[in-house]
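lol forgot to send this yesterday, sorry. struct tokens for the thing we talked abt
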């Protein structure tokens, strides 16, 4: 069996960059997105997720405020509301994933 010849890479390997593959682009977008652009695009694609996140944060904040004030009944109600808002957020994420999978099949 013959030994393989020496391998001479064209450019040094850079682990912080995606590999360069001829004819392949790792992103479907021609220009890199900023955080704000990506956030706005994702919010437009599935607006229920940020709404659920805000509802979860609001219920948690108000529940902790009520707990601090000694209103245990209202605090318990807000913690249950927080669980419902988290469930809504998870369901919105799953439905968004299913919708994007169905869209990519078409």
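and heres what i got for the seq, position by position
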């Amino acid at each position: 069996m013959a030994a393989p010849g020496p391998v001479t890479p064209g450019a040094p390997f850079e682990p912080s960059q995606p590999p360069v593959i001829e004819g392949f682009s790792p992103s479907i977008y021609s220009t890199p997105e900023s955080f704000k652009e990506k956030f706005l695009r994702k919010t437009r694609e599935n607006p229920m997720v940020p709404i659920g996140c805000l509802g979860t944060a609001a219920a948690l904040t108000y529940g902790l405020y009520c707990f601090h004030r000694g209103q245990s009944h209202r605090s318990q109600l807000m913690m249950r509301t927080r669980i419902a808002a988290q469930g809504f957020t998870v369901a919105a994420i799953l439905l968004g994933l299913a919708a994007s999978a169905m869209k990519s099949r078409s």
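Helices lie at 35-45, 48-69, 72-105. anyway ping me if u want another try
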